[in-house]
Task: inverse folding
DNA sequence: CTTGCCCATAAGCCCAGTTTATGCCCCCAT
DNA sequence: ATGGGGGCATAAACTGGGCTTATGGGCAAG
């Protein structure tokens, strides 16, 4: 067997000056080292069905194509993934692990797909949703994936904006269901709490606050320049209220992502929804700073025009968000 | 402006009989609806750098290639992603959202890549890790990504197995650092607790237990047939100990994934690490059942041969896992 | 020992994504 | 005002990965 890696794939594609792309090690963008989605889906199908041929049929290609694709994936990764026998194929130990990791990529792709589809549908959709940025970013794609499983032919359209924009779309009849994250419910709307969120103060691991054990007081937070979302964002509103209207920006950025990036790079303390920083906290790229006597909790709410209790698709989606 | 979508891309590629692939709706596998990793990376670069050309340089392609690729991504998604101007390109609102979703795919791909690379390196690696399945599956890829950021040229190899296998590799000198999830530390090894985990009882939302408010007692759990990992797995050991050695299997499955799938499909209650079911709980595909008077907590530990305190790369990795 | 399911190999096709090679637009500095 | 430089678009030609069809060989069960 052997790995048979006598290949000379690279061949130094560009004669261009630019890039230095020759080390054998960890070079070449992700896309060159990670199989594409089609291959990963195929692998999942093989894992589930126990046969290359059956998996091929499921994803709509022929058996030789599946065989070759799995094989080239094994070559690419340098790891045997499946044990082929005349009676079927089973994953190797390494294959099982790879498959589990692959599943996470595929799940992220499903969320992407569900979201993107909602962004497009605009017109003829049976359910028009308006959501605040944080919710649209972190929660909604998952809900849409779940909705698609339960009600495969509900076409959903999505519009993201701040609370005011959500309210406006609902009241003008441009949206059927909204999601907001502020402290107050815009007038003219009814609401139901669907989840709880909390803002947390985060710093890069090197920051002095990273080792703090005693909670920060409101006063202290108020006098410290912070990396913040822009005024008008739900996040900012909650913080301003909690501190008594005087959060002091070090910089104002217009997206959660930008705030995270700035915080990770050590620019200073940031205040963000815990939804946004789960991964970063787990990997210790950011550290949470305890706070004391400041209420940074906030409710996430579904909202709809007063009186128009959600029905049909809107109710379906709503029931997925909390029960 | 308009979308300028006069395309007739499809052109019904295959003359083959096979597939019926014509409905405009939600057909065609994910891979056809989600841009490939290269395109997503390019999009992230555009978001960060504010220019197609600069992004192109960063990912190592030419400007026209980048332009065309972004454009075909926009066509594929049916959404304008970037505002092109003679002075650069900025994301549209929709583009910003899409980019955030794309980032999650790319991050999953990075974890996959780091893991796969470790599976391959086998030989000449400077750090040889042995880990239990749950840790290898859920935690390690993230650590490896972080390690790669901090120490780009640490080649890591990974071997996954149960606690006994981890211990064996460490003691025989085939591994430098191990991670286990059992209750007891194998003899001959020193350890440090790096995180806490908890087993939880989960059921499909339709199950009677899903609406339970009072905690399950050990006795009740012990007499109920459960979906479980096989004997010998860390998960199973903890459960058996907690119940007094008598967990009653409804089915025994050899992977966490299989257990999850069975539980989601409503086969019965399952007992799993909370690491494994985060996503499922959030989306309510599974519901946690409260337990009472049963200690299902367990420590996750790093382990190494007694006396050989981790140094060098092993210490680097260790310090990422908790501090 | 034949039928069915499995996988592998071989040869040829096709399209997506690239690369060069241009051209236009806008801003800024000279 | 006038060139220069950064930025984007379009066009034509090349390449290769992945697909399909067409086979062949192993193993099990009727």
Result:
């Amino acid at each position: 067997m052997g790995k048979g890696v006598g290949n000379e794939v690279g061949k130094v594609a560009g004669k261009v000056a630019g890039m230095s792309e020759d080390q054998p090690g960890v070079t070449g963008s992700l896309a060159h080292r990670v199989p594409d989605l089609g291959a990963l889906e195929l692998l999942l199908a093989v894992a589930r069905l126990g046969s290359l041929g059956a998996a091929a049929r499921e994803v709509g290609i022929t058996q030789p194509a599946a065989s070759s694709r799995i094989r080239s994936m094994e070559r690419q990764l340098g790891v045997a993934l499946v044990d082929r026998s005349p009676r079927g194929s089973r994953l190797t130990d390494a294959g099982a692990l790879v498959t589990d990791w692959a599943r996470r990529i595929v799940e992220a792709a499903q969320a992407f797909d569900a979201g993107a589809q909602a962004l497009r549908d605009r017109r003829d959709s049976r359910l028009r949703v308006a959501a605040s940025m944080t919710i649209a970013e972190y929660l909604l794609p998952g809900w849409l994936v779940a909705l698609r499983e339960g009600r495969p032919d509900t076409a959903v359209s999505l519009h993201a904006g701040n609370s005011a924009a959500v309210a406006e779309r609902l009241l003008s009849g441009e949206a059927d269901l909204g999601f907001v994250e502020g402290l107050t419910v815009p007038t003219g709307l009814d609401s139901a709490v669907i989840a709880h969120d909390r803002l947390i103060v985060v710093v890069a691991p090197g920051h002095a606050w990273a080792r703090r054990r005693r909670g920060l007081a409101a006063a202290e937070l108020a006098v410290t320049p912070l990396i913040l979302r822009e005024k008008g964002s739900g996040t900012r509103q909650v913080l301003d209220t909690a501190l008594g209207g005087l959060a002091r920006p070090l910089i104002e950025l217009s997206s959660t992502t930008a705030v995270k990036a700035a915080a990770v790079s050590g620019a200073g303390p940031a205040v963000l929804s815990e939804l946004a920083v789960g991964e970063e906290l787990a990997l210790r790229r950011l550290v949470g700073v305890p706070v004391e006597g400041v209420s940074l909790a906030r409710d996430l709410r579904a909202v709809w025009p007063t009186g128009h209790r959600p029905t049909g698709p809107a109710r379906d989606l709503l029931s997925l968000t909390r029960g």
Notes: Residues 1-25 of chain A have pLDDT under 50 and may be disordered. The CA atoms of residues 148 and 154 of chain A lie 7 Å apart. The first helix of chain A runs from residue 30 to 33.
